[in-house]
Amino acid sequence: MKDVWLIKSRKRRIEQGHPWVFRNEIEKITGDPATGDVVQVKNHQGHFLAQGFYHEASQIAVRVVTYSEKEKVDDRFLREKMKQAWQYRKRVLRHTASCRAIYGEADGLPGLVVDKYEQVAVVQILSAAMDKRKEAIVKAIVDVLGVKAVYERSDAPVRQLEGLELSSGCLYGECPSSVTIKENGLQLEVNLVEGQKTGHFFDQRENRAAIAPFVRFSTEEKPRPDQHYDEQKAHLAAESTRVGATVLDCFSHTGAFAMHALMYGAAHVTLVDSSEVALSQAKINAELNGYLDRASFEVVNAFDYLRQAEQEKQQFDVVILDPPAFAKHKKAVDQALKGYKEINLRGLKLVKDGGFLVTASCSSPVTRQEWLEVIHDAAMDAHKLLRMIEYRSAGKDHPQLLGMPENDYLKFAIFEVKSRG
Ligand code: SAH
User: Which residues contact 6 (CB under 8 A, 6 or more apart)?
Assistant: First the structure.
C-alpha cells in the first residue's frame, strides 16, 4: 500500500472538497510511491480520506481523483470520468460541437484540459500523472468525444512545476492548423497551432452573449416601444443605417467579443490588441461574418491606446476590457490590482454618459471582492456613478468546485456608467 499521511494541525481542505494535498501538509509517506503512482490519503489517525496521484517533487504532492476507497484508479476509471464530463456537457449546453469538454480538477481529472473544436480535440496535459497516461488518455478522448484528431498544446509554463517539458503536436489523426467553430451563431476561425492557450477562450462564451442588450443602441438613440428585442433585426439595422453602439474592444484577441457586438447590432467596433497574430485572426473572423466594414483594428499596447484615446477625448457607447491574467500568484496581486485600476479608470473615462463598461478579470488569486473594489475606486476617481447590471463568471463548461477557490478565476461584470456631473 502506498499511503500519504497528513499532519494533525492542517486545514481540513480535503474534507471540504479541495482536490490538492500540499507537501507541507504531509506527516509521513509509506510504501515508497513514485511520481504518477496512485496513493491513498489518510488523516493523522490513519482514516482514509481520498485516493489521488502522487508527485515526488511538486508542491502539489497529491491530486485527488476519488473519495472512494474501493474504486480502482486505472485507465478505465479515467475513461469513465471523461464520459461523465462529456455527458454533463451534453445535458447542460445547447451546442457541444465546440466547447471545453474536460476541465481538469473540476471534472475529477486533475491536470487534464480538453477543448473540442468540431472534430478536433485540443489537449493540455498539466500534471506528471496524466502525462504518464497520455496514450490511454488520447485513446479515451477519441472514443468518448468521437473526434477525428487530437492535437496537443501542452506548452503552458506550469508544466515545468511538474518536471515536464513543453510539448505540442498532433497526437492522433490528421490535425488541421485551424478550425472554424460556431459560437452563439457566429463563425470563428481558431488557430489551433499558433493561437493562445488552446486557441479560443470558451469560458467567456455565455458572457459574450450577455452583451447583446447593451450594444444594439447608441446612447443618443431613443428606443421606440416597437423596437423590442430582436438580435437579427438589430444586426440588419446596424448594417444598413449605422445605428447601434460604438464599441471599443480592448484586449480583443481574435475578436470574439467584437464579433458578438457586431452581430447584436453595434454600429462600429474598434479592436485593440498588442498581438499582430491575434488581430490578423480577428480580421479573418470579421470577414467570415461579413463585418469587415464595421470594424477597425489597432495593433498597440492597450494601456497606451487608452491613454491616447483619453487625451484625444474619444468616446464610445460601450467599452470592453478583457485583459490577460495580471496575477498568476498571490505575490502578484497588489501589482495586478494597480493594473485593473488603471485600465478600468481609463476605460470608464471613454464611456459616453449613460453607456456601458463591460469588464473582466481572469486572475485567479484576485478575489471577486478585491476586483470590484478596484473598479469602484476607479469610478470614484473618474467621477462616475456605476450601476452593476450583470455579474457573471465562467460558463457552464467550466464548472467550479466550491471547495476550490482557484476555480473561481473568471470575474465578469457589466456596468452602466453615469457621470456624477
Ligand atoms: N477578449 C478575448 C480574450 C483576451 S485574452 C476573447 O474573448 O477571446 C488577452 C489578450 O490581451 C491577448 O490577445 C493578448 O495578446 C492581449 N494583450 C496582452 N497584453 C496586452 C497589452 N498590454 N495591450 C494590448 N493587448 C494585450
Answer: 14, 21, 25, 26, 27, 41, 42, 43, 44, 49
In this structure, whether the domain defined by 191-419 belongs to CATH 3.40.50.300 is answered with no
In this prediction the pTM is: 0.95
120-125 and 149-154 strand pairing: parallel
User: pLDDT band at 240, cuts 50/70/90?
Assistant: confident
| Ligand 1 pocket test, candidate residues 253, 260, 307, 412, most atoms within 8 A of CB | 253
Q: Ligand 1 centre from 194 Cα, in Å?
A: 15
- All 3 cell numbers of residue 336? 495586478
The angle subtended at Cα 314 by Cα 311 and Cα 319, nearest 5°, is: 115
Q: Tell whether the model's pLDDT for residue 226 goes beyond 90.
A: no
Q: What is the CATH number of domain 75-180?
A: 3.30.750.80
- Domain 3-66 in CATH 2.30.130.10? The answer is yes
Q: Name the band, by pLDDT with cuts 50, 70 and 90, for residue 16.
A: very high
Angle at 164 between CA 161 and CA 170, to 5 degrees: 135
* Mean pLDDT value across residues 265-273: 97
Domain residue ranges of the chain, discontinuous segments joined by +: 3-66, 75-180, 191-419
